[in-house]
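Subgroup meeting minutes
Present: P.N., E.W., G.H.
Scribe: E.W.

1. P.N. recapped why we're keeping a running log of single-chain structure predictions: easier to compare across weeks, and new members can see raw inputs and outputs side by side.
2. G.H. added today's entry (182 aa).
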Amino acid sequence: MHEQPLEGPLVGEDGEVGYRGVTACQAVGISYRQLDYWARTTLVVPSVRDASGSGTQRLYSFRDLVVLKVVKRLLDAGVSLQNIRRAIDALRSRGVDDLAEITLISDGTTVYECRSPEEVVDLLQGGQGVFGIAIGGAFKEIQGSLSHLPSEPVAQPQPIAASFQPSEGDELAARRARRRAG
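Output recorded in log:
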């Protein structure tokens, strides 16, 4: 599926916007193949609109892009996809404002969620943790990336797949009909 970006941000009636796959990839720094795989395997499913057949396109929310950025950082740090799935499942229930307050710390195997600087220090003093991801930092990075990338309104009409109805004078259709009849 090839997506054409729109010029400038477009906003729906309720003020909410969605971002196409190509825009999500550019904002997060991943390939379209990764994005497609993560959507098909339900690691990060677009919350605005999922693809529903030929001609439709996924639309990701800003929160989805933050989660995609976190997934990319965890993968880059060597955390297994299985452990990333567990961490993302725990984060799915939180709102964007809540996400910005979280720091993820990992020892490369387990991902720990910290909500305060004291929790980060306690975890590090306990000998746990090798790297951390401040989701608030990812939040700000995505905001900066999106400032020059296109978005589109959430409430957008879906393309309707036109079914081909051959005309009575269509020779190819007549041949197919004769072949099926035997």
